[in-house]
Amino acid sequence: MTVRLLNHLEEGPASAPALLLGPSLGTSLALWDRVAPELSAAHRVVRWDLPGHGGSAADLIGPGATVGDLAALVLELADALGIDRFAYAGVSLGGAVGLHLAVHHPGRLSSLAVLCSSAHFGGEAPWRERAERVRREGLAGLADSAGARWFTPGFSVPGLVRDHREADPEAYAACCDALAA
To answer: In Å, how far are 74, 113, 114, 135, 144 from 94, measured between CA atoms?
Structure first.
């Protein structure tokens, strides 16, 4: 049986302590482009894409997904790479994955950084509504407003907005389901 893994990028010495980096909803592993080179000087950095984002297959999760489902995919990736214990940093949904790992698999984490994230993302209803909207209309409308939601006026990272536009709508919606749960 072949295990399909999250798309990922490894950088740094294979013998260095592992650091896994999780992205936010609508972005890819490119979210970490500016800091990964510095981090990989002293760590085995593994950046990963959410299902349907970047290079990860969309059908790794489906409707009704949970943060626990995403955390299980991260653990499958770590196991496949021979990484038993690792430091973890995640942004937004990636941070929620880190919180789940810390609560349910504390022995796997050596440290945790949670950025722009929460254990509770403002209630279930807005995320269910967003999931329904994306399933109905696709991502174009949300991608058009992503820059204004993510960045202060005068600042932009066009590649991240492109990642948002190119994400698979069904997988994005399933990630919204995870945030709702």
So the answer is: 10, 10, 8, 22, 22
Q: Are 124 and 180 in contact (CB under 8 A)?
A: yes
Question: Tell me: the pLDDT tens digits for 71-125?
Answer: 999 999 999 999 999 999 999 999 999 999 999 999 999 999 999 998 888 889 9
Task: Round to whole Å and give the CA distance between 48 and 58.
Answer: 14
Beta carbons of 159 and 74 less than 8 angstroms apart: no
Cβ atoms of 28 and 54 within 8 Å: the answer is: yes
Which of 89, 81, 84 has its CA nearest to residue 5? 81
Whether residue 53 contacts residue 172, with contact meaning beta carbons closer than 8 Å, is answered with: yes
Encoded amino acid at 128, one letter: R
- DSSP secondary structure letters along 50-119: PTTSTTS-GGGS-TT--HHHHHHHHHHHHHHTT--SEEEEEETHHHHHHHHHHHH-GGGEEEEEEES--S
